[in-house]
């Protein structure tokens, strides 16, 4: 349970594990149920196009997401995958929604083992591929 009293649905944890262990999804987007008592799956996708992931984030509503971020490590060393956690809280979202999402984030984040990087997004420039790539590559060098 989070400070806001919001729990995490089994479905949300299963979807995350399907992404992490089963490579079943490229991304999972989470939201709160209508009662604001549980974090549930909003949508899952195996689509590898990052732009389609960004289009799935609503312009005026908060979401959490995990994305199996694949990138080149340069000099022909191949590709790496990092699981990235997104706290999507656009400036245009209702204040109450932003407050509930902010206070529920830690409970979800703690239950997602294996996430390498956290991204806080308030507008699309902060979640653009290049911005995330820069953060992921930086965290990769420090391990």
Automatic annotation (TrEMBL):
Pfam families: Cofilin_ADF. Coiled coil: none annotated. Belongs to the actin-binding proteins ADF family. It comes from the Eukaryota. Keywords: Actin-binding, Cytoplasm, Cytoskeleton, Nucleus. This is Cofilin. GO terms for cellular component: actin cortical patch; nuclear matrix. Controls reversibly actin polymerization and depolymerization in a pH-sensitive manner. It has the ability to bind G- and F-actin in a 1:1 ratio of cofilin to actin. Binding to F-actin is regulated by tropomyosin. It is the major component of intranuclear and cytoplasmic actin rods. Required for accumulation of actin at the cell division site via depolymerizing actin at the cell ends. In association with myosin II has a role in the assembly of the contractile ring via severing actin filaments. Involved in the maintenance of the contractile ring once formed. Residues 5-137 form the ADF-H domain. Its main location: cytoplasm. It is found in: Cytoplasm, Cytoskeleton; Nucleus matrix. GO terms for biological process: actin filament depolymerization; actin filament severing; endocytosis; Golgi to plasma membrane protein transport. One of its GO terms (molecular function) is actin filament binding. Gene3D superfamilies: Severin.
């Amino acid at each position: 349970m989070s400070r806001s009293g919001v729990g995490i649905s089994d479905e949300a944890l299963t979807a995350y594990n399907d992404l992490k262990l089963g490579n079943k999804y490229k991304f999972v987007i989470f939201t709160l149920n209508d009662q604001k008592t549980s974090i549930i799956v909003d949508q899952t996708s195996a689509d590898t196009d990052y732009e389609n992931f960004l289009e799935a984030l609503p312009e005026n509503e908060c979401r959490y997401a995990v994305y199996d971020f694949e990138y080149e490590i340069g000099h022909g060393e191949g590709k790496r995958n990092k699981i990235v956690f997104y706290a999507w809280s656009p400036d245009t979202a209702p204040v109450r929604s932003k407050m509930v999402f902010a206070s529920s984030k830690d409970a979800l984040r703690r239950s997602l083992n294996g996430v390498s990087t956290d991204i806080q997004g308030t507008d699309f420039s902060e979640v653009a591929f290049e911005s995330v790539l820069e953060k992921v590559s930086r965290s990769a060098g420090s391990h």
